[in-house]
Write a structure and sequence with these properties.
Helices cover 18% and strands 30% of the residues. The chain has 221 residues and is α/β, with parallel strands linked by helices. The chain has a single domain, classed as 4-Layer Sandwich (Metallo-beta-lactamase, Chain A). It has a 7-stranded mixed sheet, with no helix packed on it. A hairpin with a 2-residue loop joins strand 2 and strand 3. It is globular. The N and C termini lie close together (11 Å). 47% of the residues are buried.
């Protein structure tokens, strides 16, 4: 689906494809279809196997694909041939020719995604567009600091977890969307049978709309 100059597609669960300039940037591929193109850059938020899936990374990678990931994914990703693995940490900024990728801390207040693991969300910035992939997280102070992106006239897309089982639930995610004030909010973390359901995503969209925030469920490719 195209949002102004951003073309973003849902790959299932927490996976997304962003077509940016001439690049295919894929986030957390998991059980992706054969229709998904090869990635120029893969962003891995954390080491859980529904986010750091070796089988899927192998499927969508090509010679020279760049994989960005937290440090605890490194040994797993060494099993993938022909990719360039780059370890990143929160607040790292990677500058490419026409866009930047910024790393944001992601964690929950319970045992599943502890703060000391150094797991991540990502901000993709190009032109007047910003896409925020929150990863598996609660509504944290780090997220609230990103609210300025929605106040600068940017095309700001916020992709937030909604399942409530191991991350924030639909209501908390909708309230977070209000704080971020994005051009559009998109749910992730549902529909694969791991956790989260389509009903969680629908509730998130409904709550966002009630609160005056545009929200969309993307069709899976």
């Amino acid at each position: 689906m195209k949002f102004d100059d951003v073309d973003i597609e849902f790959l299932g669960h927490s996976g997304f494809l962003v077509r940016m300039m001439t690049k295919n940037i894929i986030v957390d591929p998991y059980r992706v279809s054969d229709d998904v193109p090869k990635a120029d850059i893969i962003l891995i938020t954390h080491s859980h196997n529904d986010h750091c899936s070796i089988r899927d990374i192998q499927k969508i990678s090509k010679n020279g694909t760049l994989v960005l990931c937290p440090v605890d994914c490194q040994s797993t990703l060494m099993k993938v041939k022909n990719v360039e693995v780059h370890i990143v940490d929160s607040e790292d900024v990677l500058k490419f020719r026409n866009f930047n990728i910024e790393c944001v801390r992601a964690y929950t207040y319970h045992k599943y995604h502890p703060q000391n693991e150094g797991w991540l969300g990502y901000l993709l910035k190009f032109g007047n567009s910003v896409v925020y992939f929150a990863g598996d997280t609660d509504s944290t102070p780090e997220i609230k600091k990103l609210s300025g992106h929605g106040k600068k006239g940017n095309n700001f897309i916020a992709v937030l977890p909604v399942s409530g089982q191991v991350v924030m639930d639909a209501l908390v995610a909708a309230n977070t969307a209000v704080l971020l004030n994005p051009s559009v909010a998109i749910p992730h973390g549902y529909g694969s049978g791991v956790y989260g359901t389509l009903e969680d995503a629908k509730r998130f969209v409904e709550l966002c709309q009630q609160k005056g925030v545009r929200a969309e469920i993307l069709k899976k490719i």
